[in-house]
Amino acid sequence: RKEVEQDPGPFNVPEGATVAFNCTYSNSASQSFFWYRQDCRKEPKLLMSVYSSGNEDGRFTAQLNRASQYISLLIRDSKLSDSATYLCVVNMYGNRDDKIIFGKGTRLHILP
Amino acid sequence: DTGVSQDPRHKITKRGQNVTFRCDPISEHNRLYWYRQTLGQGPEFLTYFQNEAQLEKSRLLSDRFSAERPKGSFSTLEIQRTEQGDSAMYLCASSPGTVPGYTFGSGTRLTVV
């Protein structure tokens, strides 16, 4: 089983719609979780951290389910500028070792 | 510019040639990471340094690959006897060691022909 798994998509979603992605991770001892955004031919950039209690940043909501070992990202009122690849990222050791493992990414296309 | 710099941005090389990439991290960051990304895949971990010490190497890093970080500042990644399968984006990131702390460079895109 891969360490981090995501549906590669693409998700083709009309502007203004709500879209959600899930990601599963294999190591139950994983410490920290993140969503990164990557635009075409650009480097990945941190979108948001994922906290156990769930967290929101504007139109973006992230949730963590440790029992089922998955994290999710919800995007409300999607914009054309949200078109990108969303990478699920897991850190297994916390601040003791900040190496992060990436999923393959989920491609999102927002349609006008 | 106080971000992570990578050089060159693009490299085209013939199969069998050696190539070397450079990464200049954020100066206060003691950790430096190399990742490789191919089309349709997420970045895959290659190796990382804490200061000048190379702490971990992925199995993806064959004997043809070597990375160094002399003096704990910039790092180089060398690929010897390049193969077409080495064609990828090579990403460098630096971190102060806290989570999340990564800052990625813009990457070096390698094409082996």
Task: Give a quick precis of the structure.
Chain A is mainly beta and 112 residues long. In chain A, 0% of the residues lie in helices and 53% in strands. Chain B contains no helices and 11 strands.
What are the defining features of this structure?
heterodimer, A: 112 residues, mainly beta, six-stranded mixed β-sheet, five-stranded antiparallel β-sheet, 53% strand, globular, B: 113 residues, seven-stranded mixed β-sheet, four-stranded antiparallel β-sheet, 0% helix
Description:
The complex is a heterodimer of chains A (112) and B (113). Chain A has strands at residues 4-6, 11-14, 19-25, 32-38, 45-50, 55-57, 60-65, 70-75, 84-91, 100-102, 106-111. Chain A has 112 residues and is mostly beta strands. Chain A is globular and about 45 Å long. Chain A starts with a strand and ends with a strand. Chain B starts with a strand and ends with a strand. Chain B is built from no helices and eleven strands. Chain B is mainly beta. Chain B is globular and about 40 Å long. Helices cover 0% and strands 50% of the residues of chain B. Chains A and B meet through strand 5 and strand 10 of A and strand 4 and strand 5 of B.
Oligomer: heterodimer
Question: What's the rounded overall pLDDT mean of chain B?
Answer: 93
Shape, per Cα inertia axes of chain A: globular
The termini of chain B sit apart by 33 Å
Average per-residue pLDDT of chain A, rounded, comes to: 92
Give the secondary structure arrangement, pairings included.
The complex is a heterodimer of chains A (112) and B (113).
Chain A: E1 4-6, E2 11-14, E3 19-25, E4 32-38, E5 45-50, E6 55-57, E7 60-65, E8 70-75, E9 84-91, E10 100-102, E11 106-111
Parallel strand pairs in A: 2-11
Antiparallel strand pairs in A: 1-3, 3-8, 4-5, 4-9, 6-7, 7-8, 9-10, 9-11
Chain B: E1 5-7, E2 10-13, E3 19-24, E4 31-37, E5 44-50, E6 53-57, E7 65-68, E8 75-79, E9 88-95, E10 103-104, E11 108-112
Parallel strand pairs in B: 2-11
Antiparallel strand pairs in B: 1-3, 3-8, 4-5, 4-9, 5-6, 7-8, 9-10, 9-11
